[in-house]
User: Fold these one by one.
Assistant:
Number 1:
Amino acid sequence: MKVLKKEKFPQIWQAINQAYELYLPIEKDDRVNFAQWTEGETVNLEALKTEISPKDVIFPQSETYLKFESDGKKLQLESVESENREYVLFGVRSCDAVSFNLIDNVFLREPIDRLYEKRRNKGTIVSLACSEPEENCFCSSFQIKPEEASPGVDVAAWDLGDKILWKPVTEKGQVLTQKFAQLMEDASQQDQEELIKLQNAIKEKVKELPLASVDPKVIKGELKEIFESKVWDELSQSCLGCGACTYICPTCHCYDIQDFAGGNCGERFRCWDSCMFSEFTLMAHGNPRTTQKQRFRQRFMHKLVYYPNNHGSYACVGCGRCIEKCPVNMNIVKVIKRLGGEG
Amino acid sequence: MEKIANKVRETARLALANGEVNKILGWKKGDFWYDSYPAFITEEEGTASLIWDSFCVANLSKYLIEQLKEDIKVGVFLKGCDARAFNQLLKDNRVDRDKVVIYGLPCPGMIDPEKVKKAGLAKGLLDVQKSEDEVVFITKEGEQKFSAREFAYDKCLTCQYPNPVVYDELLAEEVERNNTTEYFYQDVEEIEKMSPDERFAYWVEQFSKCIRCNACRNVCPACSCEKCIFDNSKANVAGKAKVDSEEQFFHIVRAYHVAGRCVDCGECSRVCPVGIPLAKLNRKIIKDITEFYGEHNAGVNPSLDAPLETFKLEDIDPFETRAKGGK
C-alpha cells in the first residue's frame, strides 16, 4: 500500500499523461464530468459523482469503425482502428466501477465485441472510495461497498484528507504503481489505521442514507406476471420518452449502427441508443414496441428482470443519477418500490 | 401554498366524484424534498396524494396530447407557463379544448434544486417550505430562512406570466406580475454583445456538451409533431452520432422550428442534463420577433395571428433593415 500526497497531484497527472491517456473528473462551467486531462484543466475529485457516468471512456458514445467507398462497380472497405494508446481512468466510484463489469458481461462473452474488448483492455482503472455518499445513492441495495475496492478495478484509492491511500490490486495496477512509485511513499501504520476508520465511517453513512432500505428483491414472481403488471401503465404515463436516463446511466449499453453517407463513400459508426426512443428496435417489418409504456417497461425489465436472469445480478448500481436527472422525477427507485407493492 | 394544496385535492376529488372529468393530472410527492412529480389519477381516493409546492415545476399540458387519444375528459392543473403551453398546443391543433378542464394555479415561482445544492444546503435537507417571499429549509438541526428569489429558477425570475392565461377555474388569488423587464433579455444581450467569433465559439462549446438525449425536445410544448424528423430514419437526417455537426444541426433546426411558437417556459434549459442554456437561443428569436414585428407572446392569446405565420405588406425586411454582416 502506498500514499500519494495531494500536493503531488499536478506532477502525477503530468507523469501519467506522458505514458497514457489520462481521464479524470474535470470541472467545467460548474459541472464535473470525466474527460481527457490536459494541462490547465480543473480536476475535481471532491465531487462525489460526475454528471454523466464514465462509461463513455470504455464505451465511447460514437465510434467510427469502417470507411467505405464505391466506384459504381466495386465496393472498397477499410476498417478504422482506434489509436493504440493505453489509458488511465482515475477516480472512478464503486458504483461506476461495478457498472463496467456489468457491461463486460454483455460485450466480453461470446461472440466477443472486439471493438469494446480492445478499448477495455487498454484501460487501467483507479477507483476512489466514496468518503461522502449522497442522499440519492443506493449502491448498497445492490451489495456494492463504496468503502472497498470494487471487483475489477486495478488500483483502489481512498481520500485521507491531504493524501490518498493507493492500493494496487491487479497486475496492471502494479505496473502503474511501479511506474510512478517515485512520487509515492509507503503507507505507514497510522495510514492503515486511518483507512479502517474511514471505511467504518463510510459504512455508517451508507446505512443512514434515505434510500438504504431500497431492495430490488421485493420484485417477485414469474417474468410474465411482472411483464403484465398494471404498474407499467401507471408509471409510464409520466415518461417523456427522452433518453436522459439511459445516456447518463452507467449500465445502459444499447447501441445503434448508422452511416455517415455521402454519395459514393461514407463512414459506418456505432453510437449509444436508447430503448426510450420511438425508433429503437425499428426493423424491416416495423417496430415491436409502439407505445411509451412498452419502451418504459423494457428499460426496467431489462435492468431488474432480464439481465439478472441472464447474468445473475441486477443491471443497476444505485448511482442515483437518474433520480437527479429525470426531467419529471421518474426513476428506478420508484419502479422498484411500486413493483414491490409499495405506494 | 399548503392552503392552496388543500384546494387542489378537494377540487380534484370533487371533479372525479361528480364525473366532471375521468382523469386528473396533478403532482405527487416522492422520496425527496425536490421530488414533486406528475400524477395521473382516476380514483377519488387517489386525489389525497396530490400536492402543490415549490417543486411542481413539471408542465402537465403536453401530456394531454397522449391522454386525449382516449375518449376521456381530463382535469389538469396548470401554472402560468403551463397555461401558455396549453394555448400553444391548442393553436397547433394538438389538444381539444372541450375535453379539458383547466384548474389554474397562480405561480409564486419554483425553487431550483440545483441552486440549493450549489449553496451547500442540500445535505440533510428534509423539507423546503415557501411563504410569500421567503423560503425555509428544514433539516434535523433546525430551520434556515432565505429570500426565495435566491433559489428560484432563472426562468421564474424573468417570468412575465405567473398567472394562468387560460383556465376554467382559478384556485387562488392572482400573484403580482413580475415587472422587471429590464432584466428580461439580459441573458440574450450578453450573447449579442459578443463578436461573431466569440459567439460562434460560445455555441460550439455549449452544443459540444450535448449527449443527444432529446430531453429538450420531448419536454417542449412547441415540439409536438406526431413524428419528429429526427426520429424518422427515412428522412436521413436522424444522425445520432455525438459529433459537433450533428449536435449543432439538431439544436439549430429545433430553435427555428419552434420560432414564434416558443412560449418561453424555459423547460429546455431546465431539463438539459448537461446544462446547455438552450432557452437563450429561443429567447434571442423571441427578442428579434419583438423588434421586427412588435411584441408577440406565444400562447398568451391563441386567437392572435403569430407574426411568422402571417405576412403583411408593411412587414419589414429583416435582412435589409437589420443585416449586420459578420459570420
Note: The interface with chain A takes residues 30-32, 34-40, 58, 63, 66-67, 118, 122-123, 211-215, 217-219, 227, 231-233, 236, 238-243, 267, 270-271, 273-275 of chain B (CB under 8 Å).
Number 2:
Amino acid sequence: MLEALMPELVIAVFALAVIFIDMTLREDDKEFLGYLSLVGVVIALAMVFSQAKSLLAAMAAKQAIQVSFFSGLMRVDLFAVFFKLVFLLVALLVILGSLDATRRDKYKGEYYSLVLFATLGMMFAAMAVDLVLLFVAVELASISTFALAAFRKNRPGTEAAMKYFVIGAFSSGLIVFGMSLLYGLTGSTNLYAIADALSALSEFHWVLLLAVIFLIAGFGYKVAAVPFHMWAPDTYQGAPSPVSAFLAAASKKMAFVALLRIFLIALSVPVLVKEWALLFAILAAITMTLGNVVALAQTNIKRMLAYSSIGQAGYVLIVFALLASTQVNVNLSIGAGLLHILTHAIMKGGAFLAVAAASYYMIGSNLEDFAGLGRRLPVTALTMTIFLLSLAGIPFFAGFVSKFMILTASVAAGGAYLILGILLIINSVVSLYYYARVIRYMYFAGGDVKREREPLLLSVALVIAALLVIYIGVFPDSFVSLSLNAASSLFS
Amino acid sequence: MLAYLIAIPFLGAFASYFAERYEVAKARSVALATSLLTLIISIAALSSFLSGKEMFPAQAWDWIPDFGITFTLGVDAMSLSLVLLTALLFVVAIFASWNITQNTKRYYALLLLMEAGLMGVFMALDLFLFYVFWEIVLIPAFFLINGWGGRRRSYAAMKILIYTHLGSLFMFIGFILLYLKAGSFSFFAISDTLSSLDAGFKSFVFLLLFIGFAFKIPLVPFHSWLPDAYTEAPTPVSVLLAGLLSKMGAYGLLRIGVTLLPETFQGYAYAIAVLAVVSVFYSAFAALAQRDIKRLVAFSSVSHMGFIVLGIASLNLIGINGAIFQMVSHGLIVALLFFLTGMLVEKAHSREIPYLGGLITKAPFLGWVLVFASLASLGLPGLSGFVAELSILLGLFNSFAFLAYLAVLSLPLTAGYYLWMLQRAAFGATSELVEKARSDVAWHEAVPVLVLVILITVLGLYPAPLMNMISTTSQAIVALIGGI
C-alpha cells in the first residue's frame, strides 16, 4: 500500500524539506531549493512512470491488481497514474523554467514549496474516489496556487491573485454545496457508493439536478468554461509566466480529473447522463466558440493564450457531451479527452514558458514586443512556433493527434454531435489565425535586433516540451493506447 | 524506394540549413543537390514501374494501430507522373531562387520541406497519411510567402493558410466518416467496404471531400485566396503553388473522389462540370482585365485547372487521360510562365503589361520565351497544352456535349488575353523601362527554361509514351464506373 503512495510521499518530503532548508540558507544560496525540488519531481516522475508500466503490463495480461486503498478512499488505477504523469511533467517543466525566470525574485523557498504542495494536491485529486478526499486535495492545490499567483507583489500580480482567490473560494463553495446535496441524497461520500444508491433511486429527484448544476458550475470555474471564465485572462496575464504555465497546464487539468471521476462514476446513472451531457454540450459549444473568437481580438500574448486555453478546454468538454451517445465507444471519447489534456498541458505550458523566456530579457508580452523574436531569441521563438502550430492542430505535432481523436469521437457519435465536431474544426481554423499572427510577428516583423544568450534552463525546459510535442505528433502510437487504456481503467 | 523520395528532401532541408549555418556549403548548393538526387530517384522509380514492378502499394508500415492508420506508400501511373513533375519543378524552383539572398538557409530548408510534403501527398495510400501530408505542405508555403513575398505578403499568406485549412478540415471529416465505416484509413480497406454503403451517406461524404479539393484546385467560388497568394509569393513559390499545389486538389479529386466513390461522383459529375465551366470562363474574363502579367498567369492557371476538372467530370477514358495529361502539361507551362515573370521583374524592372512594350527587340530571349510560353498556354497545336485540352474536349463531347460547346468557346478567349498581352508587352512600341532592360541570360536561367521548353514541345509532338502510361490509370478508373 505504501508503495503505491511513494511518489506522493516523495513530493511531500521534498516540499517540507524545501521549507526547512530555506530557513538555514543565505539569500544568495536559495537557488539550491529549486534544484532540490527538481530532484524530488524527477524521482516522483520516475516512480509514477514505473507504476504506469506495471499497470499497463497488468492490464495487457488481464491480471487483477489491487488499486483501491484506505478502505476505498482512493484508487491508484492507470487513469490516476496518467494524470499524475501530466502533473509531474508540468511541475518539472515549470520548476526548470522558474530556476531562470524567478532568478531575480525573493522568497524562493516559499515559491518552490508551494509548487510542490500544489502538485501534491493535484496528485491526490487524481486518485481520490471519495468526495471528502477529493475536496481536500483540490483545496490543497488551489490554495497553493492562489499564493503563487500573488508571488510578485506588483499591481497586475495582486489583481490577478485577488481575482483568482475570490473566484476560487466562491467556486469551492459551489462544489461543497453540490457535494453535500449528493451526500444528503445518498448518505455516502464514496463515489461508487453514491452510484449504487443513485441507481437504486426509484424516480428522478430534482435535488439531483441541483447537485449536478452546482458541481458543473463549481468545477466550471476551475476549468474556466464559459460563462465561468472571466477570472482566467486577468489571472494568467497578471501572474508570473511560469505560474500561468502551471495554472493553465496543471491546475486546470485537476478540475478535469475531478469532473471525470464524479460524473463518470458517481453520476453515470442513465437517466441522469442525458441531463448533464446536454449541459456539457452547451457548455462545450459556447466555451470553445467564445474562447477562440475573443482570442482573435487580443493584443497581449498571455491574454491570448488564456483565451485559447478556454477554447481548448471547450474541446475537452465535448467529450463529456458525447457520453450520452450510444454510437461511440466510451473509451474512445474519454481517451480522446485524456490525450488532449496531456498534449494541451505540454504545449500550453510550453507556450507560457516561452513568454517567460522573453520576459527574462524584459521583453513584454504584447504582440509588438514579440516582433523580431526569431532573430533575438531563436530557440524561444522556434519552440514557441512548435507549440503554436501544435495548438492549432497542424499534423506531426501532438495537438493534431488529440484533436483528431476528439473529432473522430464526435463524428462517430453522429447526429447532433456532428455539430460539435464541425464547431471544433471551425474554431480550429479561427485559432490558426491568431496563432499564425504571433508566428508572423516573431519571424517577419521588427527591425534590427541582436541575438541574445538565452537563459539555459528555460531553454532546456522549452526544448524538452517541444521535443515531446513532436514525438507525440510523429509517434503517437504509445500515447494513444496509453490514454485509451487509462480511460478503460476508470471503469474496471 | 518511394520512402526515399520523402526522406531525402526532408533530411536535405536540415542539411542545407546546417551546412550554411556552419559555413560548410551554401544552402543553395545543398538544396540543388538534394532536389537533383530526388529527381534521379524518381526517374529510377519510373524505370522500375515501367519494368512492371508492383508499386501500388509499394511500402507499408504500421503507424497508429489503434485507429487502423498505416504509413502506406504506392504509385500508379498518375501519381508517378505527378511525382516526376514534383521532382522536376523543385529543381526549376531552386534555379528560380538564384536571386534570393536574404535568409537563404531558412528559405531552402522550407522549400525542401515542402517537397517532402508534396511527395507524400502524391504517394500516400492511406487517407490519414494523405491528409497529414496535404496539411503539412501548407506550413512551408505560409512561411515562404510571408518571408520572401511581395508587398502584401502577410495578407496573402494568412489568406491561403486559413482558406485552404478550412477546406481541408471538411475533407478530413469526410475521411473520418469513411474510416468509421471501414475501421481503417487504408485506401484499399475503404474501397472494399464502400460499395456496401448507402448512397445518401456516400453523397454526404463526397460533398465534404469536394469542399477540400475545390479549395485547393481552386474552382471558382472557392478561389478568392488564389490571386493574392500567387501574385504575392516569391517567383519560385508561385511556380510551386500553381504547378504543384493546385494539382493536389485535382489529384485528390481523381484518386479519392472518383476512385473511392465512383457512383457518387457520377451523380455529381454534371454539377461539377458546370462549376468547372463557370470557373474556366470567370477566370478567363478576369485574366483579360489584368495589367500585371503575374496576375494574368494566376487567373489563366485557374482557367486551365478548370479544364482538368472538366476532363475528370467527363468520366471516360479519353477525358481522364486528358485531365492527367493536362496536370503534367499545365505544371510545366505554368512553371515556365511564372519563372518568366520573375525574370521580367529582374531584367525589365516591371511586370506591368503597359511598361513592357517592345520587349522582344531589347531582350530577345526573354521576349521569345514569353511568346512561346503564352502560345503553349493558349493551346497551340504541337505543344503539350493542345494535346491535353483536345483530349479533354473530346471526352467532354462524349459525356456532356452542351458543356463541351461552351468550353470550346473559352479557347478564343484564352487566345485573346494571351495574344493581346503579347501584342502590348512583347511587341508594340518600346517603352522607357524596356529601353533600360538587360538582355543578358545567365546559365541558371537558360537551363531550366530550355528544359521546360523542350519538355513542352516533346510532349506536344510525341505525347504517346506519357499518354499510354497514364491510360493504365485511366482505364482502371473508367472500369470502376463501367464505362469504356
Note: Chain B has a mean pLDDT of 92.
